[in-house]
Structure formats: structure tokens, C-alpha cells
Amino acid sequence: MAPMGEREKDMQIAVMAVGKLREKPLRQMADEYLKRLSRFGRYEEIEVPDLPEREGASSAEEERIRTREGEALLQRLRPGDRVVALTIPGRQRSSPELAAELQEARNRGQGRMVFLIGGSLGLGQNVLARADAEMSMSRMTFPHQLARVMLLEQLYRAEKINAGERYHK
Predict the structure, then answer these.
(1) All structural domains of the chain
(2) Using an 8 Å Cβ cutoff, are 121 and 65 in contact?
(3) pLDDT in tens, 124-157
(4) Euclidean distance between CA atoms 12 and 42, whole angstroms
(5) Which of 45, 70, 79, 161 could form a disulfide linkage to 124, CB 3.0–4.6 angstroms apart?
(6) Is the Cα dihedral 123, 45, 158, 144 positive or negative?
(7) How much is the pTM?
(8) What does the alpha-carbon distance between residue 65 and residue 51 come to, in Å, rounded to a whole number?
(9) How far apart are CA 16 and CA 12, in angstroms?
(10) Burial of 144: CB neighbours in 10 Å, binned 0-12, 13-18, 19+
């Protein structure tokens, strides 16, 4: 593939997540992928606070938490953002499919693409209503902090694919 033109490289990609990466090994991995991704364009990680969950909380209480966490995510979105919510039932993509989706967004002149990761309770309906697409990493459930590192790795893999560079399979 040809190198990215300046217009194409201008797209910003944000990984927006509920909660901080508290475990040192996960934080180090996320930082390493963000560093690697920086040569492909403008990547940023945005964290919003997670709310405490009461043991034995009702489903209504859990939905209130998801909604309040979602409000914090939604406040950080811009009107023209392409929003991809990570959900278990979302559409699974192969690495080449994710690479193609990023390249198509760049070719369309997309200003910012935002991947949203909920907290331990997932994403609220308010966030899902705003999402342009839902993406699943797997039908299995992963801790939301690990999912963030996995997403950053897949974005790095996608960028390597789009740059025509070798990346292990």
C-alpha cells in the first residue's frame, strides 16, 4: 500500500474507556501500543471515572450506573465523531477487516473515530444509541481493562496491515 497522505493521516483515533488501567502490566502494555501507534497518526486514550458498584445491586441500579458512566463518555464525544462501541453482541471483524474500516474512514476524510469501552457493567443504552457501529472482540467476556489492551494491539495490527508492513499472524 502507498504511504498515507497528509489528509489521510489527519484522522484522529481515540480509545475512550470507563475506568483507569490500574494494573501496572496492563498500563505498560497500553502505553507501549500507544507509543507504537503514534507513528501512524494521532491516537489518544481518554479515561472517564467508573462508579462504585454495590454488592447485590439490582438490575435497575446497574443500569443507572451504566447510564451515568455513559453520560461521562457522551460528554467527550464531538458531533462528527464516528463512534464504535465495543460490545459482546457486536459484529466481529478480522484484523484485515478492521484495517479496511480504518482506511475507509481515512479516505472519507473522517475527523475522529472513537472506540468506546464500558466499565465492568458494560455500556448503557444511552451510549449504544449514539454509536454508529458495535464491534465485538469475541463472543467471550473479557475484563474491560484487558479489552482495552487487546483493542490497542488490534489497532496497531490494522495500521501495520494498511502500511503494507509485516506483522506476525
Answers:
(1) 6-162 (3.40.1280.10)
(2) yes
(3) 999 999 999 999 998 888 888 999 999 999 999 9
(4) 5
(5) 70
(6) negative
(7) 0.91
(8) 7
(9) 12
(10) buried
